[in-house]
Write a structure and sequence with these properties.
51% of the residues lie in helices and 7% in strands. The termini are far apart. The strands form two sheets. The chain has a three-stranded mixed beta sheet, with helices on both faces. Strands 1-2 form a two-stranded antiparallel sheet. The longest helix is centred in the last third of the chain and has 25 residues. A hairpin with a 3-residue loop joins strand 1 and strand 2. It is globular. Helix 6 packs antiparallel against helix 7, helix 7 packs parallel to helix 9 and helix 8 packs antiparallel against helix 9. The chain has nine helices and five strands.
């Protein structure tokens, strides 16, 4: 496995070969909370590139070929979500801080039974074939997974986790931060998939299917770094109409200009 202590996304470690700067006080992050970051945009890009090489070294012999329908499908959906992330009014709506950051979007599929996917800092996406049956042939459900993982990168959650590790946060505080990040990725993901043209109602459908598949395999929420499925689904049901309303307003051109314009 990868030789690092900092977990990003849904449990993928990031190498820390270079020392990161001391945690810097952050402005308001996507969850509407203070978000200190441990890496500059340049360092985040470098960490993402190194992590990508480690993943390729680990799983390269199990990557599906680019010509496979699974890879084509994942790359098509990823490209649409990445394009949606460029929409400036959407960035303002979900409080993304992207100025100065570079994302090198690329998606690959790993032949492995793990029910998982992840996105490294700076945009390298990996999907394990084990999660594809959960989404089935429904691109909207697969977009739910990809939007969630891409949201971790857009929200700089790896950088925030590094800042937290450097601050010496205790275990309970760490669990809270992790749950906060997972909820933020759900929230951002619902908006991303909606603006990318996918049906956000299917986010609820996907997580209900995931709950059924993983029944009895998850610890209680207070011991987990993920929100419980019940809380996750309840929150998504509240976000779906807001995401749809935002997309409809954007399509009509009823969006306020950025401050100062």
């Amino acid at each position: 496995m990868l030789s690092a202590a900092l977990a990003i996304g849904c449990g993928v470690p990031v190498p820390q070969s270079d020392p990161a700067p001391p945690p810097q006080p952050g402005s308001q992050g996507p969850g509407g909370r203070e978000q200190p970051l441990g890496m500059s945009p340049k360092q985040e890009l470098a960490v993402g590139r190194r992590a990508y090489q480690e993943i390729m070294n680990e799983y390269g012999d199990r990557l599906l070929p680019p010509s496979s329908p699974e890879v084509s499908r994942v790359r098509h959906i990823t490209a649409k979500i990445a394009k949606a992330a460029e929409i400036e009014p959407l960035q303002r709506e979900i409080l993304l801080r992207l100025r100065g950051y570079r994302f090198e979007w690329e998606a690959n599929v790993i032949r492995d039974a793990k029910v998982n996917a992840f996105c490294l800092p700076a945009g390298k996406v990996f999907v394990f074939t084990g999660i594809l049956p959960v989404a089935g042939k429904d691109d909207d459900q697969l977009a739910t997974v990809l939007s969630h993982e891409i949201a971790h990168a857009l929200a700089h959650h790896a950088s925030e986790r590094l800042a937290r590790e450097q601050s010496g946060a205790g275990v309970l505080r760490s669990l809270k931060y992790n749950r906060d990040q997972e909820s933020e990725a759900d929230h951002i993901g619902v908006f991303l998939m909606t603006f990318a043209g996918y049906d956000p109602h299917k986010a609820v459908t996907f997580w209900e299917r995931m709950r059924q598949k993983m029944a009895g395999q998850q610890p209680p929420e207070f011991l987990s770094d993920h929100p419980s499925d019940e809380h996750r689904i309840e929150a998504m049901r509240k976000w779906v109409p807001k995401a749809l309303a935002g997309k409809q307003a954007f399509d009509r051109g009823d969006i306020a200009p950025p401050p100062g314009r």
